[in-house]
Amino acid sequence: MRLPQLEDLRPIEGKRVLVRCDFNVPRPKGKPDPKYSIEPVRRHLYQLLEAKGADTDRVELLENLRYNAGEEGNDPAFVATLVENEDLYVDDAFGAAHRAHASIVGPPQFLPSAAGRVLAREVEVLDGLLQKPERPFVAVLGGAKVSDKLGVIEALLEQVDTLVVGGGMCFTFLAAQGHNTGGSLLEHSQVETCARLLSNVEATGKRIVLPTDIVVLSPDGVFGAGREPRGEMGMVGADVPDEWLGLDIGPGTAAAFADEIAGAATVFWNGPMGVFEDPRFAAGTRSVAEAVASTKAFSVVGGGDSASALKLFGLDGQVDHLSTGGGASLEFIEKGDLPGLAALREAAARQAR
Protein backbone atom coordinates (compact mmCIF):
# COMPACT_ATOMS: atom_id res chain seq x y z
CA MET A 1 0.00 0.00 0.00
CA ARG A 2 1.62 3.23 -1.16
CA LEU A 3 1.02 6.11 1.20
CA PRO A 4 2.39 9.63 0.71
CA GLN A 5 5.53 9.99 2.82
CA LEU A 6 7.02 12.96 4.69
CA GLU A 7 9.54 13.40 1.87
CA ASP A 8 6.64 14.06 -0.52
CA LEU A 9 5.84 17.28 1.36
CA ARG A 10 9.21 18.93 0.79
CA PRO A 11 10.15 21.73 0.89
CA ILE A 12 8.65 22.49 4.30
CA GLU A 13 10.73 25.50 5.28
CA GLY A 14 8.47 28.27 6.52
CA LYS A 15 5.38 26.04 6.40
CA ARG A 16 2.87 25.44 9.18
CA VAL A 17 2.25 21.71 9.68
CA LEU A 18 -0.80 20.19 11.37
CA VAL A 19 0.24 16.85 12.89
CA ARG A 20 -2.39 14.39 14.11
CA CYS A 21 -0.82 12.52 17.04
CA ASP A 22 -2.14 9.67 19.14
CA PHE A 23 -1.27 10.69 22.67
CA ASN A 24 -4.06 8.49 24.06
CA VAL A 25 -5.62 10.84 26.57
CA PRO A 26 -9.04 9.50 27.75
CA ARG A 27 -11.68 10.87 25.42
CA PRO A 28 -14.62 12.99 26.65
CA LYS A 29 -17.88 12.85 24.74
CA GLY A 30 -18.01 16.10 22.84
CA LYS A 31 -17.59 18.63 25.64
CA PRO A 32 -14.74 20.00 27.78
CA ASP A 33 -13.83 18.09 30.92
CA PRO A 34 -10.78 19.23 32.92
CA LYS A 35 -9.88 15.69 34.01
CA TYR A 36 -9.39 14.77 30.34
CA SER A 37 -7.28 17.81 29.50
CA ILE A 38 -4.15 17.28 27.45
CA GLU A 39 -2.25 19.77 29.61
CA PRO A 40 -0.07 17.12 31.38
CA VAL A 41 0.91 15.79 27.95
CA ARG A 42 1.73 19.32 26.78
CA ARG A 43 4.07 19.90 29.72
CA HIS A 44 5.88 16.62 29.15
CA LEU A 45 6.14 17.18 25.39
CA TYR A 46 7.66 20.60 25.89
CA GLN A 47 10.16 19.17 28.37
CA LEU A 48 11.23 16.60 25.78
CA LEU A 49 11.52 19.25 23.08
CA GLU A 50 13.54 21.57 25.31
CA ALA A 51 15.88 18.70 26.17
CA LYS A 52 16.59 18.37 22.45
CA GLY A 53 17.17 22.08 22.06
CA ALA A 54 13.95 22.70 20.11
CA ASP A 55 12.19 26.06 20.14
CA THR A 56 8.89 25.31 21.91
CA ASP A 57 7.53 28.72 20.91
CA ARG A 58 7.13 27.25 17.42
CA VAL A 59 5.03 24.31 18.65
CA GLU A 60 1.39 24.44 19.68
CA LEU A 61 -0.36 21.37 21.11
CA LEU A 62 -4.12 21.62 20.68
CA GLU A 63 -6.51 20.60 23.43
CA ASN A 64 -8.18 17.18 23.46
CA LEU A 65 -10.03 16.94 20.15
CA ARG A 66 -13.03 15.30 21.72
CA TYR A 67 -13.75 18.41 23.70
CA ASN A 68 -15.61 19.29 20.49
CA ALA A 69 -18.54 17.15 19.30
CA GLY A 70 -17.51 17.96 15.75
CA GLU A 71 -14.53 15.59 16.02
CA GLU A 72 -16.50 12.36 16.16
CA GLY A 73 -19.24 13.81 13.95
CA ASN A 74 -16.73 14.78 11.24
CA ASP A 75 -18.27 18.24 11.19
CA PRO A 76 -17.02 20.34 8.24
CA ALA A 77 -17.09 23.44 10.43
CA PHE A 78 -14.72 21.79 12.92
CA VAL A 79 -12.48 20.61 10.09
CA ALA A 80 -12.30 24.21 8.89
CA THR A 81 -11.04 25.35 12.30
CA LEU A 82 -8.36 22.65 12.27
CA VAL A 83 -6.95 23.50 8.83
CA GLU A 84 -7.21 27.28 9.17
CA ASN A 85 -3.80 28.89 8.53
CA GLU A 86 -2.16 25.45 8.10
CA ASP A 87 -0.08 24.55 5.04
CA LEU A 88 0.52 20.81 5.40
CA TYR A 89 -1.00 17.83 7.24
CA VAL A 90 0.73 14.76 8.70
CA ASP A 91 -1.24 11.84 10.14
CA ASP A 92 0.82 9.87 12.66
CA ALA A 93 -2.11 8.49 14.66
CA PHE A 94 -2.45 4.90 13.52
CA GLY A 95 -4.52 4.06 16.60
CA ALA A 96 -7.24 6.39 15.32
CA ALA A 97 -6.88 5.74 11.59
CA HIS A 98 -9.90 3.42 11.56
CA ARG A 99 -12.18 6.27 12.60
CA ALA A 100 -13.72 8.60 10.02
CA HIS A 101 -13.38 11.54 12.40
CA ALA A 102 -12.79 15.18 11.56
CA SER A 103 -9.08 15.29 12.41
CA ILE A 104 -8.40 12.06 10.48
CA VAL A 105 -10.29 12.35 7.19
CA GLY A 106 -10.94 16.11 7.13
CA PRO A 107 -7.54 17.81 6.68
CA PRO A 108 -6.44 15.65 3.70
CA GLN A 109 -9.35 17.14 1.74
CA PHE A 110 -7.76 20.59 1.96
CA LEU A 111 -4.02 20.24 2.62
CA PRO A 112 -1.09 18.40 1.04
CA SER A 113 -0.85 15.37 3.32
CA ALA A 114 1.44 12.52 4.31
CA ALA A 115 1.80 9.63 6.71
CA GLY A 116 4.04 10.08 9.72
CA ARG A 117 6.78 7.59 10.50
CA VAL A 118 4.75 5.64 13.06
CA LEU A 119 1.71 5.26 10.83
CA ALA A 120 3.81 4.37 7.79
CA ARG A 121 5.64 1.63 9.72
CA GLU A 122 2.39 0.20 11.06
CA VAL A 123 0.98 -0.11 7.55
CA GLU A 124 4.22 -1.57 6.20
CA VAL A 125 4.26 -4.30 8.84
CA LEU A 126 0.58 -5.19 8.76
CA ASP A 127 0.38 -5.08 4.97
CA GLY A 128 3.35 -7.44 4.93
CA LEU A 129 1.39 -9.92 7.05
CA LEU A 130 -1.40 -9.90 4.49
CA GLN A 131 0.73 -9.91 1.35
CA LYS A 132 3.98 -11.77 1.93
CA PRO A 133 4.42 -13.39 5.36
CA GLU A 134 7.24 -15.85 5.86
CA ARG A 135 5.85 -19.31 6.53
CA PRO A 136 4.71 -21.03 8.61
CA PHE A 137 2.48 -18.10 9.61
CA VAL A 138 0.79 -18.60 13.00
CA ALA A 139 -1.85 -16.24 14.37
CA VAL A 140 -2.85 -16.36 18.04
CA LEU A 141 -6.21 -14.84 18.92
CA GLY A 142 -7.80 -14.37 22.30
CA GLY A 143 -10.27 -12.01 23.87
CA ALA A 144 -13.89 -12.35 24.79
CA LYS A 145 -16.19 -12.77 21.80
CA VAL A 146 -16.07 -14.46 18.42
CA SER A 147 -18.55 -11.90 17.10
CA ASP A 148 -16.11 -9.07 17.84
CA LYS A 149 -13.40 -10.68 15.73
CA LEU A 150 -15.30 -12.76 13.19
CA GLY A 151 -14.16 -10.65 10.25
CA VAL A 152 -10.57 -10.79 11.51
CA ILE A 153 -10.78 -14.58 11.96
CA GLU A 154 -12.06 -15.06 8.42
CA ALA A 155 -9.42 -12.73 6.98
CA LEU A 156 -6.61 -14.44 8.90
CA LEU A 157 -7.76 -17.88 7.80
CA GLU A 158 -7.15 -16.70 4.24
CA GLN A 159 -3.50 -16.03 5.13
CA VAL A 160 -2.26 -18.14 8.02
CA ASP A 161 -1.17 -21.74 8.20
CA THR A 162 -2.37 -22.15 11.79
CA LEU A 163 -4.86 -20.19 13.87
CA VAL A 164 -4.49 -20.63 17.63
CA VAL A 165 -7.58 -19.65 19.64
CA GLY A 166 -7.72 -18.98 23.38
CA GLY A 167 -9.50 -16.54 25.67
CA GLY A 168 -13.25 -16.39 26.09
CA MET A 169 -13.85 -16.91 22.38
CA CYS A 170 -12.46 -20.45 22.53
CA PHE A 171 -15.57 -21.70 24.31
CA THR A 172 -17.80 -21.00 21.33
CA PHE A 173 -15.40 -23.03 19.17
CA LEU A 174 -15.33 -25.81 21.77
CA ALA A 175 -19.13 -25.83 21.88
CA ALA A 176 -19.11 -26.22 18.10
CA GLN A 177 -17.05 -29.38 18.62
CA GLY A 178 -19.62 -30.69 21.07
CA HIS A 179 -17.83 -29.87 24.32
CA ASN A 180 -19.59 -28.72 27.47
CA THR A 181 -18.63 -25.13 28.32
CA GLY A 182 -20.33 -24.89 31.74
CA GLY A 183 -20.89 -21.30 32.80
CA SER A 184 -18.09 -19.96 30.60
CA LEU A 185 -18.59 -17.15 28.13
CA LEU A 186 -20.50 -18.63 25.19
CA GLU A 187 -22.06 -16.97 22.16
CA HIS A 188 -24.87 -19.32 21.22
CA SER A 189 -25.54 -17.35 18.03
CA GLN A 190 -21.97 -18.01 16.82
CA VAL A 191 -21.73 -21.77 17.46
CA GLU A 192 -22.89 -22.61 13.95
CA THR A 193 -20.45 -20.08 12.50
CA CYS A 194 -17.57 -21.65 14.42
CA ALA A 195 -18.63 -25.09 13.22
CA ARG A 196 -18.50 -23.79 9.64
CA LEU A 197 -15.04 -22.31 10.16
CA LEU A 198 -13.74 -25.57 11.63
CA SER A 199 -15.20 -27.54 8.72
CA ASN A 200 -13.77 -25.17 6.12
CA VAL A 201 -10.31 -25.33 7.69
CA GLU A 202 -10.29 -29.11 7.46
CA ALA A 203 -10.97 -28.85 3.72
CA THR A 204 -8.08 -26.42 3.14
CA GLY A 205 -5.44 -28.30 5.11
CA LYS A 206 -4.98 -25.43 7.56
CA ARG A 207 -5.50 -25.80 11.30
CA ILE A 208 -7.42 -24.18 14.12
CA VAL A 209 -5.80 -25.14 17.42
CA LEU A 210 -8.03 -25.02 20.50
CA PRO A 211 -7.44 -25.59 24.24
CA THR A 212 -7.31 -29.13 25.56
CA ASP A 213 -7.23 -28.15 29.25
CA ILE A 214 -8.78 -25.21 31.06
CA VAL A 215 -8.40 -23.46 34.42
CA VAL A 216 -11.86 -23.14 35.97
CA LEU A 217 -13.50 -21.36 38.88
CA SER A 218 -16.45 -22.59 40.92
CA PRO A 219 -19.87 -20.97 40.36
CA ASP A 220 -19.59 -18.99 43.61
CA GLY A 221 -16.23 -17.54 42.59
CA VAL A 222 -15.29 -13.90 42.18
CA PHE A 223 -12.62 -12.82 39.72
CA GLY A 224 -11.17 -9.76 38.05
CA ALA A 225 -8.70 -6.98 38.74
CA GLY A 226 -9.15 -5.16 42.02
CA ARG A 227 -11.74 -7.57 43.38
CA GLU A 228 -11.40 -9.78 46.41
CA PRO A 229 -10.68 -13.25 44.99
CA ARG A 230 -13.06 -15.99 46.04
CA GLY A 231 -14.02 -19.47 44.91
CA GLU A 232 -12.54 -22.88 44.29
CA MET A 233 -10.19 -23.30 41.35
CA GLY A 234 -9.71 -26.44 39.31
CA MET A 235 -8.20 -27.91 36.18
CA VAL A 236 -10.30 -29.74 33.61
CA GLY A 237 -9.95 -30.99 30.06
CA ALA A 238 -11.86 -29.43 27.17
CA ASP A 239 -15.20 -29.97 28.96
CA VAL A 240 -16.16 -27.54 31.73
CA PRO A 241 -18.43 -28.76 34.55
CA ASP A 242 -21.91 -27.27 34.69
CA GLU A 243 -21.94 -23.66 35.94
CA TRP A 244 -18.15 -23.56 36.45
CA LEU A 245 -16.29 -20.77 34.67
CA GLY A 246 -13.38 -21.28 32.30
CA LEU A 247 -11.04 -18.34 32.88
CA ASP A 248 -7.66 -19.39 31.47
CA ILE A 249 -6.03 -22.00 29.29
CA GLY A 250 -4.39 -24.84 31.21
CA PRO A 251 -0.66 -25.66 31.32
CA GLY A 252 -0.89 -28.36 28.67
CA THR A 253 -2.57 -25.96 26.26
CA ALA A 254 -0.12 -23.21 27.13
CA ALA A 255 2.78 -25.50 26.27
CA ALA A 256 1.11 -26.57 23.01
CA PHE A 257 0.44 -22.96 22.03
CA ALA A 258 4.06 -22.07 22.83
CA ASP A 259 5.22 -24.93 20.59
CA GLU A 260 3.10 -23.58 17.72
CA ILE A 261 4.67 -20.16 18.16
CA ALA A 262 8.19 -21.60 18.38
CA GLY A 263 7.70 -23.44 15.08
CA ALA A 264 6.53 -20.36 13.19
CA ALA A 265 8.39 -18.01 10.87
CA THR A 266 5.79 -15.26 11.34
CA VAL A 267 3.60 -14.75 14.42
CA PHE A 268 0.67 -12.39 14.96
CA TRP A 269 -0.86 -12.18 18.44
CA ASN A 270 -3.94 -10.30 19.54
CA GLY A 271 -5.96 -10.95 22.70
CA PRO A 272 -5.25 -12.53 26.10
CA MET A 273 -5.70 -16.22 26.84
CA GLY A 274 -7.66 -15.60 30.02
CA VAL A 275 -8.53 -13.01 32.65
CA PHE A 276 -4.86 -12.08 33.01
CA GLU A 277 -5.60 -9.04 35.19
CA ASP A 278 -6.36 -11.57 37.97
CA PRO A 279 -3.06 -13.28 38.89
CA ARG A 280 -4.85 -16.61 39.34
CA PHE A 281 -5.72 -16.65 35.64
CA ALA A 282 -2.65 -15.01 34.12
CA ALA A 283 -0.44 -18.05 33.48
CA GLY A 284 -1.78 -18.81 30.01
CA THR A 285 -1.36 -15.26 28.76
CA ARG A 286 2.09 -15.08 30.34
CA SER A 287 3.11 -18.29 28.57
CA VAL A 288 1.98 -16.97 25.18
CA ALA A 289 3.65 -13.60 25.84
CA GLU A 290 6.93 -15.30 26.73
CA ALA A 291 6.72 -17.52 23.65
CA VAL A 292 6.09 -14.55 21.37
CA ALA A 293 8.90 -12.57 23.03
CA SER A 294 11.42 -15.41 22.69
CA THR A 295 10.53 -16.73 19.24
CA LYS A 296 12.96 -16.36 16.36
CA ALA A 297 9.99 -15.68 14.11
CA PHE A 298 9.02 -12.17 13.01
CA SER A 299 6.59 -11.24 15.79
CA VAL A 300 3.75 -8.75 15.58
CA VAL A 301 1.49 -7.94 18.53
CA GLY A 302 -1.77 -6.18 17.76
CA GLY A 303 -1.93 -3.67 20.58
CA GLY A 304 -4.78 -3.48 23.10
CA ASP A 305 -4.85 -6.03 25.92
CA SER A 306 -1.97 -7.97 24.35
CA ALA A 307 0.24 -4.90 24.61
CA SER A 308 -0.91 -4.41 28.22
CA ALA A 309 -0.02 -8.03 28.99
CA LEU A 310 3.46 -7.68 27.48
CA LYS A 311 4.04 -4.58 29.59
CA LEU A 312 2.72 -6.30 32.72
CA PHE A 313 5.16 -9.16 32.23
CA GLY A 314 8.08 -6.88 31.30
CA LEU A 315 8.26 -8.17 27.72
CA ASP A 316 7.07 -5.18 25.69
CA GLY A 317 10.55 -4.46 24.33
CA GLN A 318 11.10 -8.01 23.08
CA VAL A 319 8.83 -8.25 20.04
CA ASP A 320 9.59 -7.11 16.52
CA HIS A 321 6.52 -4.91 16.19
CA LEU A 322 4.11 -3.79 18.89
CA SER A 323 1.18 -2.01 17.27
CA THR A 324 0.03 1.32 18.64
CA GLY A 325 -3.57 0.56 17.68
CA GLY A 326 -5.42 -2.58 18.72
CA GLY A 327 -8.71 -1.77 17.00
CA ALA A 328 -6.99 -0.21 14.00
CA SER A 329 -4.67 -3.17 13.48
CA LEU A 330 -7.57 -5.64 13.58
CA GLU A 331 -9.68 -3.58 11.18
CA PHE A 332 -6.73 -3.27 8.80
CA ILE A 333 -6.26 -7.04 8.82
CA GLU A 334 -9.98 -7.55 8.25
CA LYS A 335 -10.53 -4.96 5.52
CA GLY A 336 -7.07 -4.23 4.13
CA ASP A 337 -7.62 -0.48 4.46
CA LEU A 338 -8.70 2.23 6.92
CA PRO A 339 -10.52 5.56 6.45
CA GLY A 340 -7.45 7.53 7.49
CA LEU A 341 -5.24 5.74 4.97
CA ALA A 342 -7.74 6.18 2.15
CA ALA A 343 -7.90 9.90 2.94
CA LEU A 344 -4.12 10.23 2.61
CA ARG A 345 -4.05 8.37 -0.70
CA GLU A 346 -6.88 10.50 -2.07
CA ALA A 347 -5.01 13.64 -1.03
CA ALA A 348 -1.91 12.44 -2.87
CA ALA A 349 -3.97 11.69 -5.98
CA ARG A 350 -5.42 15.21 -5.96
CA GLN A 351 -1.91 16.67 -5.61
CA ALA A 352 -0.69 14.62 -8.56
CA ARG A 353 -3.43 15.89 -10.89
Describe the structure.
The structure is a single chain. This protein is 37% helix and 13% strand. It is α/β, with parallel strands linked by helices and 353 residues long. Strand 4, helix 5 (146-159) and strand 5 form a beta-alpha-beta unit. Helix 8 packs parallel to helix 9 (283-294). The two termini are 20 Å apart. 41% of the residues are buried. The mean pLDDT is 95.
In percent terms, what proportion of residues is strand?
5-15%
Ranges where pLDDT stays below 50 over 5 or more residues in a row are none
CATH 2nd-level architecture of the largest domain:
3-Layer(aba) Sandwich
CATH topology of the largest domain: Rossmann fold
Report the principal-axis shape. globular
The CATH class label of the largest domain is Alpha Beta
Secondary structural class: alpha/beta
Give a short overview.
The protein has 353 residues and is an alpha/beta fold. Helices cover 37% and strands 13% of the residues.
What's the arrangement of secondary structure elements?
Layout: E1 17-20, H1 39-51, H2 76-83, E2 88-91, H3 102-105, E3 113-115, H4 117-131, E4 137-141, H5 146-159, E5 162-165, H6 170-176, H7 191-204, E6 207-209, E7 214-217, E8 233-236, E9 245-249, H8 251-262, E10 266-270, H9 283-294, E11 298-301, H10 304-312, E12 321-322, H11 326-335, H12 339-352
Parallel strand pairs: 1-2, 2-3, 4-5, 4-10, 5-6, 10-11, 11-12
Antiparallel strand pairs: 7-8, 7-9
Helix pairs in contact: 5-11, 6-7, 8-9
